[in-house]
């Protein structure tokens, strides 16, 4: 075992047996060990950079550390730099300072030394940073993914028109190594950038790829339109979908290991005017937060919510739009009360994460297993706690309420703008007011706001928190507060934000609110009564986070526009 292999094993991310398996793949594919370690999911690119830096005693160079202009090297063709993944940076003390993906490549080192007559001072950089710098220096628009696409074009993959596409031809295209590598790159880049979804969208003249990061979609470099069929067919094969069916929507799932993590991808295809649109939802089992304390609850809201989830029976609802973290909150609540003396059953669409010790059911409407039918069977299983993924109709709402009244603790979600709106929605569905008033314990409304990057946030020019009547959040008109705004740096991918946190509105069903339910009062009346008894609204909780310096005024206004 050489020194590099010893360092690799020393990271603890792979065993000797894992290393041997990668080396066997290397013999079959004749690719560098370093690339395979990342491609097969044993190391992230950052882990590999740190390892190579230690092995070659070469410092790591970030994208922002590249100089504005490269040194003039007239006797070297710029295509050599792209092929070798090397970028000249400067000439210092008679040495050529270079950024390299592989500082140990003897052929590249020898070629550069002979061509320039200088020794090399080596730096290590990410492949995409080197290629983007070369594209900037030599103005040909090549990017990291463009280079990979170039490799694919060199293999003469041909895109056929819809009336020419043959299923076996598509299958062959999707099995080509360059296409496999391209899909792996798209997924790996999404994981590195903390994306929750990958969108592949065909248009008339181009193919778009976008990542949803912290709830916002960002454009990324996409392969040319001619590779659309091969790319989408590859994803469909991985998800075990029918590649011959391009007229109907399909849903599937991909399980893989990448960057040292177990990843589930929920795949959805949809036929559009110019081909199939594909969305891959990334479910990273290692990153699921099930600790309620980690979700951003203020101490008083956390204490009150904790009392409700430990009640023996009743119904607790979590409301908010799609992507507001409702399921994560419910998982956190179930994880907190999960114990050997309780039987917990969930019915979800779909089951996103597996909870230890919890019986989880995936609804299948095509065979008659709906929320309502599944819930009827669940109550005959003698559960203590039931979680219903979403209340969508009267039948599910009725059974949920009846279950809460007959000694079960029921959790569920609704799509409403605020906590009080959930009560009006259930009444509109047809739930009897006296049954709802007797069964409902609390309603939690929530949103997710992006968290400011701690490395580059800066004080905001304006320090007054606006709301509808022009007063500040603490009730004092024009009172100054300490607020920050986003700037952007390499650590946060120039977005100014890193991660998300929750803002919450907890409506506890007090006797006063219960009387309003029995009167079938409007949601505004219920909300006003809850505020009078001390409820903090979503926007007020958002201002609390602004004062803490964890988010911005713009973020709070963005996610609470309906208030």
Walk me through the structure.
This protein is of the alpha/beta class and 563 residues long. It has 21 helices and 18 strands. Helix 6 (106-116) links the parallel strand 2 and strand 3. Helix 8 packs antiparallel against helix 10, helix 14 runs parallel beside helix 15 and helix 17 runs antiparallel to helix 18 (511-518). 37% of the residues are buried. The model is unreliable at 140-164 and 468-478 (pLDDT under 50).
Radius of gyration from the alpha-carbon trace, in angstroms? 28 Å
Could you say which overall geometry the principal axes of the C-alpha atoms support? Answer: elongated
Number of helices: 21
Number of strands: 18
Considering DSSP H and I runs of 4 or more, what fraction of the residues is helical? 25-40%
Ranges where pLDDT stays below 50 over 5 or more residues in a row are 140-164, 468-478
Major beta sheet summary? 7 strands, mixed
Strand content: 15-25%
How would you write the strand order of the largest sheet? 12-11-13-14-10-15-18
Average predicted confidence as pLDDT: 84
Helix/strand structural class: alpha/beta
Rounded to the nearest angstrom, the distance between the terminal CA atoms is 63 Å
